[in-house]
Amino acid sequence: MSDSWNPGVRFAELSHVGMRRANNQDSLAVMIAESEDRLRRRGHLFVVADGMGAHAAGELASRIASEQIAMQYYRSREDSPQMAIVEAVRVANGAIFQRGHSNPEFHNMGTTASTLVLVGGQALVAHVGDSRVYRLRGETFEQLTFDHSLVWEMHASGQIPSDSALGKSIPKNVITRSLGPAEEVTVDLEGPFDIRPDDRFLICSDGLTGQIDDDELGVLLRCVDLDKAASVLVDLANLRGGPDNTTVILVQVEGDRLVGESPRTGAGVRGAGKPWQDASSLLLATVALCWVGAIGFGVAAALGHPRLIGSAVIAFVLGAIAAGVWFGNRQRDRTGHQPRANATARVAGQEPTEPFVHGTGPYRTCSATPDHAAHERLRGLILELRESAERNHWNLDWGSVDDLLTRAHAAVEQDDFHTAIGLQAEAVLESMRQLRKYQDDSAGDTAVDL
Prior knowledge:
The radius of gyration is 23 Å and the shape is globular. Residues 262-279 and 330-357 have low confidence and may be disordered. The strands form 2 sheets. It has a 6-stranded antiparallel β-sheet with strand order 1-11-10-7-8-12. By secondary structure, it is α+β, with helices and mostly antiparallel strands. It has 13 helices and 12 strands. Helix 11 (372-391) packs parallel to helix 13.
């Protein structure tokens, strides 16, 4: 790429194994257009994939997804970026499926894949799984993707309120759609979303979103320089336990280089398969697991453990709800209705009424305004870490952290929460640097247990 070339974006990327995993099953890809022609035709592409499967299967699946999506998108003969990116994800799914069936060790391996394309003055999102894409604009932080997870699908079906006791008991890590397990997959195409100068996009795996809430993510992205923000987010997830791999790509629109062009649309984009085809195996497995559990709890209750009868009832009800979601999706797909009333509109075999089929994102919106509550959350985390260090006799140097906390407090006294959050973020980085140094000095001992 020529030093004089202006791509119109800056980006930062980081992937970390976390504090509990032995290997990193996440993968990412960044493709920046290297010429005016490529920028006009295909734009910039960013992919995050989160693999799943025993042994090295998850690593392989996510790597195939990120590599194939990037390669196939730029190779595609499709004229429109919308059709090209959907085609690329479908090809990646086929490659993972074939590889999984060629080796018993890789059987049923899968991966999420969330792809952001900036092209023609628009942002497009192609999405499968529960990795996410967000946009920060000013003080508004938006989730542009719908999680293909059991909890999101059940809440979207309207059968169970998200704030109910039953809704809160649904496992959050069960996904209903991924690349690889099935020969065909339905791809959510979200957008196009308009692009404005200074927009920031976040593409991430659930290792990040499982540890940091949306309102906190938005505030940190607003208050921290792009060059440091990826490290701050990953370090914060790790300081909160780091139970999973964490992968982050941050993209910032620079100037008006990408703004104001007309998007190029094609003749239409269809889903790559019926929603129930790639989700049914996971939903049916959930049904079976819940009902087997219900039977087990019921037998145990009958044999002298009456307290388990409540667990049996909950397991049976969850199984019934999952069965209802599966059957409803299959029936609605057969009749030509949308699989989800308030989710993306993708119906295989039905001609689209628009030039391309897209979703109804954003799905969640929150404020990214820095305030006292956000400052106190970060401050509390660092104080908890310090207490743990003292309790466990970790030899950490808190001088730099104390200086940052003092300066942050002074900024709060002036109601300058933007500066205070930035300084707290610096304290997070310094705290993690101290922990890493202590681990290195301890010669790999498991002395630091967050």
